[in-house]
Design brief:
The complex is a heterodimer of chains A (about 120) and B (about 190). With about 120 residues, chain A is mostly helical. Chain A has 6 helices and no strands. Chain A has a domain at about 1-55. Chain A is elongated and about 110 Å long. Chain B has about 190 residues and is an all-alpha fold. Chain B contains 8 helices and no strands. The longest helix of chain B is centred in the first third of the chain and has 23 residues, at about 25-45. Chain B is globular. The termini of chain B are far apart. The chains are: A mainly alpha (about 120), B mainly alpha (about 190).
């Protein structure tokens, strides 16, 4: 038998096989769906149990897990550094604006609003 | 009856939704994948009851792995074809093949053909299934994936975890063996030379 004839014959059988509807019973579909919902329910039970056993895990998970915590820690450290370090350039800008040599620009007036009101009360 | 109302959503995304407890995703995946899994299991096993068992087991494995599924790994269907083939192979090794009964062969899709033609199609399908079942497991799997499921050689290579050249070799040898197996039945089934 030559190759073309051989392939043509087989193609006819393959076509017949492709034309058939595979037997999928409603019973099988129902069993597969039941399995799916049971696995989901079990997953939810385990999730609830883990959250109750380790509350921190729940918070961690809500925040996005350990990768998010690492980002949060980095942001916190960066915030501290920005808060404590003097802003470069601000001193010179303030000095030129106020006509000062800049030495007194870091003096901070710790008087609170309450003290001001108190002093005003005394004067009155 | 499960229904797939999320037809536009990729299967891999549905699996992620399923893992997060989405009930609609469970329905959609069941409706979308069970027929695929069942068809492949049937073509490898030639037995409806066994194919249903394999299909249910394969889908159960999918549900259980859903939470750990990585979006960058193989397509879900590729993974399922592989699982079905492994489960079917286990079953085939445990039993001696008894041949498909004509009642066990699925009905043709085309509703317009007459009873005589329908019977002929059923007989052809039974003959093909019988010849397929006589093939070595790997050849049968490659031929079914290539010529009945209609997959490309790269995907078949991924499913069977072999090279594309090995797929080509398996399908070529499988087709030769199929042709030989069907040769004896061709005349009586109306596939004669005339």
């Amino acid at each position: 038998m030559d190759k073309t004839k051989h392939d043509d014959d087989l193609e006819a059988f393959f076509d017949a096989a492709q034309d058939m509807t595979p037997p999928v019973s409603e019973g099988l579909m129902a069993r597969v769906l039941d399995d799916a919902l049971a696995v989901q329910a079990e997953g939810e039970r385990q999730q609830t149990r883990r959250s109750q056993d380790r509350p921190f895990t729940g918070i961690l998970s809500a925040l996005g897990g350990w990768p998010a915590m690492a980002g949060l820690a980095t942001a916190a450290v960066a915030g501290l550094w920005i808060g404590f370090s003097p802003a470069l350039g601000v001193g010179e800008a303030m000095a030129s604006a106020l006509g000062s040599d800049g030495a007194d620009l870091y003096l901070v007036d710790f008087s609170t609003g309450f003290e001001i009101a108190f002093e005003e009360g005394d004067a009155g | 009856m499960p229904f797939d109302t999320l037809g536009d959503v990729p299967t891999e995304a549905l699996l992620s939704l399923f893992a997060n407890g989405d009930r609609m995703a469970a329905h959609a995946l069941t409706a979308r994948l069970t027929p695929v899994v069942m068809a492949h299991a049937y073509r490898l096993l030639g037995d409806r009851a066994e194919a249903e068992d394999v299909a249910q087991e394969a889908m159960m494995r999918l549900w259980k792995i859903a939470a750990d599924w990585r979006q960058d790994q193989a397509k879900v269907t590729t993974w399922l074809y592989r699982v079905v083939a492994n489960l079917a192979t286990d079953r085939l090794r445990r039993r001696k093949y008894r041949g498909p009964a004509i009642d066990d062969v699925p009905e043709p899709v085309d509703e317009t053909i007459g009873p005589a033609e329908r019977l002929e199609v059923l007989e052809r399908q039974a003959a093909l299934q019988s010849a397929l079942d006589d093939l070595p497991e790997r050849q049968r799997q490659a031929v079914v994936l290539r010529h009945i499921e209609g997959l490309g050689n790269p995907e078949i290579a991924a499913i069977m975890e072999i090279s594309i050249e090995a797929v080509e070799s398996l399908t070529a040898r499988g087709k030769r063996a199929l042709a030989a197996g069907l040769a004896g039945q061709r005349e009586e089934l109306g596939y004669g030379d005339g």
